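[audit] Reproducing an earlier prediction to check determinism. Same input, same settings, fresh worker. If the tokens differ from the archived copy the diff job will pick it up downstream; this log only records the rerun itself.
[audit] input (263 residues):
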Amino acid sequence: MSLSGFERRLATTWFAFGLFQTALFALLSWLYHFSSFGNILFFSLVCVWQLGIWIVLFRFRSLFTELDGRPLQKIGLPNVLTLIRLSSLPSMTVIFLMARNRPDLAWPLVIFVSLAFLTDLADGFLARTFHMGTRLGQLIDSSSDYMILFALTLILGFSGVLPLWLLTLILVRLIFQISGSAVLLARAKKPLLETTWLGKASLFGLMVLYALEILVFLRWHGLAGSLFLRSIEYFTGALMLVSLFDKAAFFYHRFKNGPDSPT
């Protein structure tokens, strides 16, 4: 099947960001003397990631529209920021894995994660403030958030930074969200991509918690075991639990009324 003009521009932009991330990682590898394992892991991940995301995007090309259903003619700045964040996941993951025993990688990791969180705030702000929202943006923004948070959860959890109870609760919440959304997308002809207030609040709370847990992961003193951090963990856990029931109700109504109908 031939690609439309917009689809060609989207593919070019996506793979260009992949090349940029590869060049950036190669530069960091040269500056910080990454191991052969780290380099091989990154290049394997980035190839699978770039191709896999494009296959998913092409599968849901019916969402390459404005919110009112008109076909997209340009990608738009909010979507560009989201694609940048999405393309950075292989780099961020590999640097994260190496940073535990490499104190010199603390700042590159903090910069990567900070940019991911900042672009998440920026793309949403631009889309809402300047009415630049698109159905494509709804798909990739939500997907990138959950993919990045899922990767961070696994790394922080299995490195022993997150308490087991919180790790379990967060994984259940994320897997439930990802699985339910995937089923809705697969069943719907023109899926309505919606979120809830509690869903947004739980994501924001998780990002705040992870910003602190990353400092613990990097062995920055003062936070590990502190009352402040424990309070944030319990608050986030409560938010995850409440939002899990909220999301269950959301999916129930969507499946009951049909995946193409609003709640």
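[audit] rerun output stored. Observation attached for the diff report: The CA atoms of residues 198 and 246 lie 7 Å apart.
[audit] end
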